[in-house]
Protein: VWA-like domain-containing protein
Amino acid sequence: MPGEETIILADGEREISSLPLVVLSEPQQKAWGETRAAFLWRCPAFSHVLYALMTTIDNELAYFTEHVDIAGTDGFSLFLNPEPFFALPLSQREYLMAHLIAHCILDHMHLATLLRRSGQLLYADGLVLPLDETRLGLAQDLIVNDMLVSAQIGTLPEVAIGRHEPRLGKATESSIGVYRKLHQDAEPGRDGSLDNHLEAGSATPKSWRNRKAVGADGEKNHAAWAAAIAEAAEIERLQGRHAGVLSRFLGQLLIPKIHWRDKIAAFFARETGRSRYSWRKLDRHMIVRGIGAPARIGEGANLIIIGVDSSGSVTEASLRLFLTEISGILDALAPRRLLVIWCDAVIQRMDELEAAEQLLAIRSLGAPGGGGTSFVPVFDYIAEQDLVPDALIYLTDGEGLFPDEAPDYPVLWGSVADHEAYPFGEVVRLCP
Structure:
């Protein structure tokens, strides 16, 4: 009978799942045993992730509830509706379990939660798409189904045939990229969802979550998941099943993918907050000895300069995306001085700000300019004014005239296009 599952914590607090659970009948228990055995034998890699990180508080492999259509996941646990789930042939049950676990491996539920908060998807070329959760769920299903069908894992249920179309979504693509293709697709929406994509962590209270899968805060431990995925990839490689598709897919997940936001944050952490030497200022202790030597400058963030290509190649959406992220990073860094220089072929405007949060305000003033592009005026101005920035970060598409020589301060190019001809500095390709 349906009933709420309650866990009593040490302090007496009661935690209840948002999904009332049910107890399996005897025939269902037998079918569940067959499903587990078949899945363990035929899907060893996914079984490893399931047993290592997703077992229930009762050391089971799934929770059973009538409050999902057939099956669902919140990124931490599997939730199965006994009647429709066990009505499926065994090979389709295997497929469905692998489908749910793949969503968890790819962290799809967490991504959906983040996008739900913003309500939109921003792309580096300026495109802004409103969030359609149905379309996002379809994008995620297309990726997972392409991987499972290619790896020949179980049998794709007929109800989900419309959610396997490599033309629109492949296992090697991101769900955000597939979402964009679906937005441009003129065909009507596809029905036949296999599973419910639940809010991340919404149905698995923190005290229920597998302790190996979470950190001290009860949230996902990404290091533990990466380790389990690596082990799963090795299991798949050794057993040689699924034509090598699954081992390659899992292996690709282990290649470090550092987001451009993290690269920018790392750049500032590395280049600021520490002392450097510069010939722009001579060491006064050495001068009295008749020796010219570079002086130590800065014990923290003193001056940060932001250059913005205002020739028209940087879209409003890219500018908004860039300034929003930079604002958060610099707010924590708290530089003593923050200078924004807008430049196309010549400097069009300069804004000296007292706080990083003002970056969002000056965006509303618009980007002056619109002519050709030269980066030289910004570097010349810095030299002429004898400025010694802790760092210069320049937002551009990279198409323009560069200085002949690299400056003696750190430079980071925030590139909105694939351009390889930056002669100096670090380059971060801005992506959504």
Q: What stands out?
A: The first strand starts at residue 6 and ends at 8. DSSP finds 14 helices and 16 strands in the chain.
